[in-house]
Design brief:
The chain is an alpha/beta fold. A five-stranded mixed β-sheet has the order 2-1-3-4-5, with helices on both faces. Strands 10-15-16-18 form a four-stranded mixed β-sheet. The protein has a three-stranded antiparallel β-sheet with strand order 11-12-13. A hairpin with a 5-residue loop joins strand 6 and strand 7. The termini are far apart. 23% of the residues are buried.
Length: 503
């Protein structure tokens, strides 16, 4: 009996088409081999692969194998399953003829290595590929014009509706609130990407491969304007019809934090000096650093140490900026808050927005909780089926114990998250008190705040403070501060330091 190989291919778009499915192709090719008296030695399958190039794993394996173990024929379902490029087809056909191998096509009913028939069919396949490609491009562009992202939506959304180009999307009831909270956490400036990775892992948010979301994935999420409503395609952009997960303002805040990451992130240091990252030298433009000078006898009345801020180039390159004692400089900065106050209209707006935020948080918490309850129910159902499989002896004990433990741990994690969500949905009186105190008395609130909150207040108003001769001489306001001043939401009565000015 003559021997043959069978080669099958289906593209990603065609996998849903039953007529071109691998199973249908395989059945037809095996029947054809039996009818023609061929013994099938091996079947090669390329699932989800384009036929425009020969760079396909199974196809390359086939070409390598026929050099070592030649057969009488290779059976394919149709030429366009084999190649959609006339040049590639011609080269492979010559190779087959040299080895004495026939290329038998089920749909074309016979050997396509002889005469012009093969090149004609390959030319038709290439033309069809180009036409279908253009149709797909046109359909995707039309989808974009109608207000929908042509590509699959990012994590936090689920695809709904029709097939392929006709699909739309909507927020995932469980994942979308987590993505929103991710933005809100990062916008505070208190979280590194590594910390957010751990946080997302605790939320059971994982990749399609079952692993935690990587550093680059989280960065891509934080940089993706799709979440506030913008869609992009082939150099064009517009606000889409999908439901945004976050506001444009929150997205812009995260971009600002990303751009100022080194200044904003409150790292876990041995010594977290309040003004680190805010103070710059007027002499050379370099950032100030801080350090403790220790001497048990000399600084006995100060606990054996004294702290100083200084330019990082002090003592090098001739920078004359002197040391300035930590407490002295921090007191100067503190005084600048004495002459700031918010307008009553702004305070009223903050109270109104705080109430709205609390109401939205409650709604969001309910959606998140329902999503977690649905997850828990699905896991409990899976656990029940696993237990039934153990009783029916259709699963071994080791597999049962491993999978049962995994499911049990996930359920416990979800229960903890549900309790956490319930706690977060309660009115946070301390938060409201802090917000209102800040708006009603900026100076006193700043003065009484712990270091990490003081840094929040500083970054709210200033991008940098410039020091000369132990005095703050210039202040670079944040865009938020400038906007508030322009709208007279913040009133500055005077500067404590005569030399200080806003740039």
């Amino acid at each position: 009996m003559k021997n043959c190989y069978v080669y099958l291919r289906v593209s990603t778009d065609e996998q849903a088409n039953e007529g071109f499915s691998l199973d249908n192709q395989k059945r037809s090719c095996l029947d054809y081999a039996q009818m023609c008296g061929y013994h099938v030695k091996k079947v090669f399958e390329d699932g989800g692969r384009s036929g425009k190039t020969t760079d396909r794993p199974a196809f390359q394996e086939l070409l390598a194998l026929i050099q070592e173990n030649s057969v009488d024929a290779v059976i394919i379902y149709k030429i366009d399953r084999f190649a959609r490029n006339v040049g590639d087809f011609s080269n492979i056909r010559k190779q087959f003829k040299q080895l004495g191998i026939k290329l038998l096509s089920v749909s074309e009913n016979g050997d396509v290595t002889e005469g012009l028939i093969g090149n004609i069919f390959a030319s038709v396949a290439e033309w069809e590929s180009e036409v279908n490609g253009q149709r797909t491009k046109d359909a995707l562009m039309q989808k974009f014009r109608e207000g929908w992202q042509p590509t699959p939506p990012p994590i936090g959304y689920i695809s709904i509706g029709g097939d392929r180009e006709r699909k739309t999307c909507e927020p995932d009831p469980y994942v979308a609130p987590i993505i929103k909270e991710l933005y809100e956490l990062y916008a505070t400036g208190n979280y590194s990407i590594l910390e957010l990775q751990e946080w997302l892992s605790d939320k059971n948010l994982i990749s399609k491969t079952g692993t935690g979301l990587g550093h680059s994935v989280i960065c891509n999420i934080l940089n993706n304007p799709f979440y506030y409503g913008l869609i992009r395609w082939r150099g064009e952009s517009k606000i889409g019809k999908h439901i945004p997960i976050i506001t444009r303002e929150l997205f812009d805040t995260c971009q600002y934090v990303l751009a100022k990451h080194r200044n904003f992130l409150l790292r876990r240091r041995t010594h977290n000096f309040l003004l680190r990252g805010f103070i710059y030298c007027a002499e050379c433009g370099q950032r100030y650093t801080a350090e403790w000078h220790k001497n048990e006898h000399k600084f006995k009345h100060r606990g054996g140490k004294i702290g100083y801020y200084h330019c990082i180039k002090l003592g090098r390159n001739g920078c004359p900026a002197p040391y300035v004692e930590i407490s002295e400089l921090e007191k100067l900065v503190e005084k600048e808050f004495k002459n700031m106050q918010f307008s009553q209209e702004f305070i009223d707006a903050v109270v109104r927005k705080t109430r709205e935020r609390l109401e939205n948080n409650r709604k969001s918490a309910n959606a998140v909780k329902q999503g977690m309850l649905n997850q828990k129910t699905a896991l409990e159902t899976k656990r029940n089926k696993l237990e039934d499989a153990l009783l029916d002896a259709t699963i071994d004990r080791d597999t049962f114990k491993r999978k049962h433990t995994e499911i049990h741990d996930k359920i416990l994690n979800l229960e903890a998250q549900i309790q956490e969500t319930d706690a977060q949905s309660q009115i946070d009186i301390d938060l409201i008190d802090e917000v209102l105190a800040f708006t009603r008395n900026i100076y006193q609130t700043y003065k009484d705040a712990p270091t990490y909150l003081k840094r929040h207040y500083l970054r709210f108003f200033y991008e940098k403070l410039i020091v000369r001769n132990k005095e703050v001489v210039e202040a670079v306001p944040t865009p938020i501060f400038l906007s508030l001043q322009a709208n007279q939401a913040v009133i500055i009565t005077a500067f404590s330091s005569p030399a200080l000015k806003l740039l």
